[in-house]
């Protein structure tokens, strides 16, 4: 299948011919052997990106030309939608319909959005206190190092490359070791789109080797990372100990989903279910603490349990499947450990809690009630299909409890009273608040975290700032 086609081409970048397997989460079987980049390959890729930045046409061509190339890349990805979605499902276990109808189209939309920005990035003139003409120039930073996770491989790829390319930077991007396929497929489309040589260099390999080398590299001018909070700390350290390159971090979360007493309960149940179980629960912003007002708690719980029991788990390539397998045995074991900890700490297991089927890494949709804030399942990011339902009495209390997390990525607020919803939205210390909806994403909407959920914002106009230097130019009048 497609995997064989591009592997031979991706290997040419890498020096030693070493490979690692990428696995099918439905069975644990090997899909393909992938070239394993190491420190030497990172050096070669950074040298290529540096040359393309210092000498190549990319930062020097008109912004309109860059925009047209980004649009061509978006068109090509759209044309290859089904092949890319197939690889994404094969590598991650996510439902094919989700990959084909939501994620690849979002990648296309994001590239078109940033293509639109390329020729609208400009500085300003500033009225200084003195006889000077002062202007600011917005310039690309240089060589950007980018590291992405396995839960939304091509979507995260696009969040990283879109703004960086629009601003005229060159890139070395490392894919997650679990999910290299879709980005490698897109690598084969870059030349056809007209991207000059050396502008976007994609390396498959492991975090501790290729990833760490990229972060420590003295010739990388900026880092952008999406992944776990623990790895985020390591990356900051590596950047600080090398050349103090600026770092953008999109990290983990433990997002509250607050259901007020006046919420439309059926909508809240459905959205809370979606907020947690979407993508097998493997979302950084998953609504993983469902706070429900005591007056509607029993009704909500009964309906939430019924919805989880109805969830269609199975082969992600089969039409109608809502939930596929978890990404790998490591994540599977970690989630099962959290489920045991929930039971041991006294939460009530309403449904699920065990493997689905006998093969692969499927887990039954799991719902816990009677969850308390100090339980591990209410504090740690489980990154799996485990919904924790907690009871609250009043708004002040729920704000305090929702904000007591070390994370601050997102929140959901369900109320039919606009004042209540807005009060909560202002009080919550998170980067995104969805009111009466959840996981509503668009290329134009900034995304990022408060507290240990990250630094900086991606997407939207804010996303451009990560990839620009501001130069002040002062001339006497
Ligand atoms: P991870 O941190 O283990 O890995 C992410 C990436 O970092 C991978 O490419 C990995 O190879 C690389 N990496 C690992 N160690 C490294 C090191 N020492 N130096 C450099 N690179 C290294 O995370 P994961 O398990 O792949 O992804 C899941 C996590 O990502 C979750 O915590 C989730 O919340 C988070 N996430 C956040 C967002 C967001 O936008 N905030 C989006 C998706 C995922």
TrEMBL record:
Keyword flag 4Fe-4S: no
Quote the CDD domains the UniProt record gives: ALDH_F2BC (cd07142)
Q: Molecular function (GO) terms listed?
A: aldehyde dehydrogenase (NAD+) activity
Q: Which family does it belong to?
A: Belongs to the aldehyde dehydrogenase family.
Q: Which UniProt keywords apply?
A: NAD, Oxidoreductase
Superkingdom of the organism of origin? Eukaryota
Give the residues annotated as active site.
Answer: 250
Q: Which GO terms describe its biological process?
A: carboxylic acid metabolic process
Entry annotated with the keyword 4Fe-4S: no
Name all Aldehyde dehydrogenase domain ranges. 16-473
SUPFAM superfamilies found in the cross-reference section: ALDH-like (SSF53720)
Q: Name a Pfam family for this protein.
A: Aldedh
UniProt organism field: Solanum stoloniferum
Q: What InterPro entries has UniProt attached to this entry? A: Ald_DH/histidinol_DH, Ald_DH_C, Ald_DH_CS_CYS, Ald_DH_CS_GLU, Ald_DH_N, Aldehyde_DH_dom
Cellular component annotations (GO), alphabetically ordered:
mitochondrion
Protein's name in the database: Aldehyde dehydrogenase domain-containing protein
């Amino acid at each position: 299948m497609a995997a064989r086609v591009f592997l031979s081409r991706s290997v040419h970048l890498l020096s030693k011919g070493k490979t690692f397997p990428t696995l099918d989460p439905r069975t644990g079987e090997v899909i393909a052997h992938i070239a394993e980049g190491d420190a030497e390959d990172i050096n070669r890729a950074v040298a290529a990106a540096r040359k393309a930045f210092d000498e190549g046409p990319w930062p020097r061509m008109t912004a309109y030309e860059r925009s047209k190339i980004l649009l061509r890349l978006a068109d090509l990805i759209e044309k290859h939608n089904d092949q890319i979605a197939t690889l994404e499902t094969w590598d991650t276990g996510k439902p094919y319909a989700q990959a084909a109808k939501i994620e690849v189209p979002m990648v296309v939309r994001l590239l078109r959005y940033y293509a639109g920005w390329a020729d609208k990035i400009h500085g300003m003139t500033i009225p200084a206190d003195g006889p000077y003409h002062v202007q600011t120039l917005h310039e690309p930073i240089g060589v950007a190092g980018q590291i992405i996770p396995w839960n939304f491989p091509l979507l995260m790829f696009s969040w990283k490359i879109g703004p960086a390319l629009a601003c005229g930077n060159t890139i070395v991007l490392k894919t997650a070791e679990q999910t290299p396929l879709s980005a490698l497929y897109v690598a084969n489309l870059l030349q056809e789109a007209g991207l000059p040589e050396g502008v976007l260099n994609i390396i498959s390999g492991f975090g501790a080797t290729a990833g760490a080398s990229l972060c420590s590299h003295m010739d990388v001018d900026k880092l952008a990372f999406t992944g776990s909070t623990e790895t985020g700390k390591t990356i900051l350290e590596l950047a600080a100990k090398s050349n103090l390159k600026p770092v953008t971090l999109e990290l983990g979360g433990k997002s509250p989903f607050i259901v007020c007493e006046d919420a439309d309960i059926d909508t809240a149940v459905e959205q809370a279910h979606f907020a947690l179980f979407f993508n097998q629960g493997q979302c950084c912003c998953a609504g993983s603490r469902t706070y429900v007002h005591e007056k509607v708690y029993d009704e909500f719980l009964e309906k939430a349990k019924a919805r989880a029991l109805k969830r269609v788990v199975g082969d992600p390539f089969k039409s109608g499947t809502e939930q596929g397998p978890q990404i790998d045995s490591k994540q599977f074991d970690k989630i099962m450990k959290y489920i045991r900890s929930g039971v041991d700490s006294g939460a009530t297991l309403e449904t699920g809690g065990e493997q689905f089927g006998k093969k692969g890494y499927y887990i039954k949709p799991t719902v816990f009630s009677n969850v308390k804030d100090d339980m591990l399942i209410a504090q740690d990011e489980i990154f799996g299909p485990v919904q924790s339902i907690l009871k609250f009495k009043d708004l002040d209390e729920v704000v305090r409890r929702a904000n007591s997390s070390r994370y601050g990525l997102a929140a959901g607020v369900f109320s039919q009273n606009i004042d209540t919803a807005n009060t909560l939205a202002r009080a919550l210390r998170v980067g995104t608040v969805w009111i009466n909806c959840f996981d509503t994403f668009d290329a134009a909407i900034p995304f990022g975290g408060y507290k240990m959920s990250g630094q900086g914002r991606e997407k939207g106009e804010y996303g451009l700032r990560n990839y620009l230097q501001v130069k002040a130019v002062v001339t006497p009048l």
